[in-house]
Amino acid sequence: MLLNQRAAFPLAQRLRSAGVTLGEAFSFLSGLYFRGKLTYAERFARPPAGSPGIQVITTDRGLAAADTRIGVLDLRAFGTVDIRADHPQYRTPLLRDASHLAPDAEVVLLGSVATGKYVDVLLEVLGDRLLFPSEFVGRGDMSRGALLLRAARDGRELAYEPVASAVRRGPRARKVALTR
Fold first, then answer.
1. pLDDT, tens only, 25-51
2. 31, CA 20 to 30 Å: which among 22, 23, 88, 180?
3. How many other C-beta atoms can be found within 10 angstroms of the C-beta atom of residue 173?
4. Which H or E run includes 65?
5. How far is CA 97 from CA 22, 60, 104, 166, in A?
6. How far apart are CA 36 and CA 53, in angstroms?
7. Global confidence as pTM
8. Sign of the CA dihedral 121, 104, 43, 76?
């Protein structure tokens, strides 16, 4: 829908003309889940001085700042690469960028920790510095998105734990109601 040349809604028009931010595009494409991640990160991220701030994992470019402008060609290119830990076109740029993160910074992954597509690659470089919200265990994408939106709205930063030593799969967590 976003790439449809006839789409007349403002985000699609801006994508075709001046471009949109990576955060805007991904929020539209994945809805509640990415919007929750971005809102939470904007509220609680404390990047080291001189770092690029909130980073988004891309399919073919490693980490990119959430405010990076992208256009139609960029979005199409993202759709051509498999997100698999063993796929060099995804893996190589992600390893490169993760290795350039501040050496003493803790990195909070707001994506899924149940599958290896992010975790297996990032752990190689970040080890115990790679953290995730403990409350993610047992939650699906939409539940994690709602949890992050609620925490940001309430000003409540979640507790984090190292991915390397965590139980990454667990019983289904109770539902989080999204209230406005």
1. 999 998 888 999 999 999 999 887 877
2. 88
3. 15
4. strand 63-65
5. 17, 12, 15, 24
6. 17
7. 0.87
8. negative
